[in-house]
Specification:
Length: about 475
């Protein structure tokens, strides 16, 4: 059995770290650790999660290529009331193509044009990035999408960033096609071990998984299983502060049930395998699918998403903007969205939730499915949890709809039911119990013979909130 264990802690990281930092002229580890230790404790995401908070924290996304524009964005978001500040990285840096990122940064500065879709952290380096956050007394979160984030995480931590998003599954299957999954999982062991050891003892570096995945008809069971796998893999490496997350599904009842299952199963598995020191938070991503192009439709979606985050009891909500449909949002649009979400969160009372048969039905269904898949995965005759996770993807037991990765099976088929909840039509290789699968199909309802073509139904399901 592939039992998770603290004994699986990655060995030899110091030697690997020395090679990596030497090859890329990276930051000195001792200097990086000293800088983290010197930061005000209000800069640490892990301590923010521990503090009592009466509403979800608000965190936007945002990344511009130049230091000046990123600094302006940082100050504007802080002034607007963001509790966490983002640093979103460009796509060339995400794929470890640092030379192209640097060349496009320089060319864009010469032409006074943005030629990158985010902040090239490796190109800017530690000294400049530290200056981005001078005088801004709140946690900074690294948002990227990188299968091999080792150097990126090193520079981020040395720059004073205390929250690292991602994981070997969530940042590989949706974001890469050919990057070997076993290598990505091993590289994220490095990142997890680095985060476990880099921060001061009283303020550990916080890790966060990326729950939306492809944000395209991903059924709750897959979201839960991916989050639990990345949580356990991080716990093995000594991470003490972690957040599981998920993206808005399109159904309020399904979102509230999914949040409850994630909290319950996270706590249960950590206790089962002796990781009692790990503190777990819950993050809710506002709608990640196709966004309405008209502001009069985008703003209500943002407001409803904020209300659902409150009702689901999320610790943090990741905010979208009314400009999502058109491209990278402007500074002003991002700041306006932060203010709007904070307004809704302050207006919606906490602790009231939504109860009823639909939520309970979803909670039981999602929980039963996720427990079955996790037990299947943990029972595999593999030498480690990492090997079992890799095997689960290769056999299709973990299958992310519409993920481009060549090792993703792509045999799981989903659709939206009449209540907008995501239902499983064909499980492919995902080991779902027969009773749960029958329930999925019953809740989906019968399709009319001779109805609309499959591609039209898929497009409608994908664009359900657009």
């Amino acid at each position: 059995m592939s039992r998770p264990s603290s004994g699986a802690c990655a060995g030899g990281i110091e030697e690997e770290r020395s090679r990596l930092l030497g090859h890329h002229d990276g930051p000195d580890p001792a200097t990086a650790a000293a800088h983290l230790a010197s930061l005000p404790r209000s800069r640490f995401a892990s301590l923010a999660y521990r503090r009592p908070h009466t509403r979800p924290y608000v965190q936007p996304r945002g990344g511009f290529p130049s230091f000046a524009r990123q600094r302006a964005l940082t100050l504007a978001l802080a002034e607007a009331g963001a509790d966490f500040l983002p640093l979103t990285v460009d796509s060339h840096t995400r794929h470890n193509d640092y030379a192209t990122a640097s060349a496009l940064l320089a060319a864009g500065l010469r032409r006074d044009r943005d030629l990158l879709n985010g902040y090239p952290l490796v190109s800017h380096g530690v000294a400049a990035t530290r200056r981005l956050f001078e005088g801004v007394d709140r946690p900074v979160s690294l948002r990227h999408g990188t299968p091999d984030a080792r150097l990126l995480a090193e520079i981020a931590l040395a720059s004073g960033i205390t929250e690292i998003e991602g994981g070997g599954l969530s940042y590989t299957l949706p974001y890469a096609r050919e990057f070997p999954l076993d290598r990505a999982l091993a590289h994220w062991q490095y990142v997890d071990r680095l985060c476990a050891t880099a921060g001061p003892a009283d303020a550990p570096v916080h890790r966060e998984s990326f729950g939306p995945l492809t944000a395209t008809l991903v059924p709750p069971v897959i979201t839960v299983v991916v989050q639990l796998c990345e949580l356990l893999l991080a716990a093995e490496q000594g991470v003490r502060s972690f957040a599981v997350s998920f993206g808005q599904t399109g159904s309020v009842e399904q979102d509230i049930a999914l949040a409850a299952v994630l909290r319950r199963m996270s706590a249960g598995l950590l206790a089962r395998y002796g990781f009692d020191a790990v503190r777990v938070g819950l993050v809710y991503h506002q709608w990640m699918g196709p966004f309405p192009g008209e502001p009069w439709r985008a703003w209500p979606l943002i407001a409803v998403s904020a209300a659902v985050a409150r009702l689901a009891g999320a610790d943090k909500v990741v905010v979208k903007t009314p400009g999502e449909a058109a491209g990278i949002p402007a500074v002003e649009s991002n700041a306006e969205a932060v203010r709007a979400v904070r307004y809704v969160l302050d207006m919606v009372p906490g602790g009231c939730g939504i109860a009823g048969g639909a939520v309970e039905e979803e909670r039981e269904l999602i929980g039963g499915e996720a427990a079955a898949v996790m037990e299947h995965l943990l029972a595999q005759p593999c030498p480690s949890l990492l090997a079992a996770v890799h095997r689960a993807v290769r056999t299709g037991a973990v299958d992310v709809p519409f993920a481009p990765h060549e090792q993703n099976a792509g045999r799981l088929v989903t659709a939206r039911g009449p209540d907008r909840r995501i239902r499983i039509v064909d499980p492919g290789g995902v080991p779902l119990p027969a009773a749960e699968l029958r329930r999925e199909r019953a809740l989906l309802g019968a399709r009319k013979p001779g109805g609309e073509p499959l591609w039209e139904r898929l497009l409608r399901d994908i664009r359900t909130l657009a």
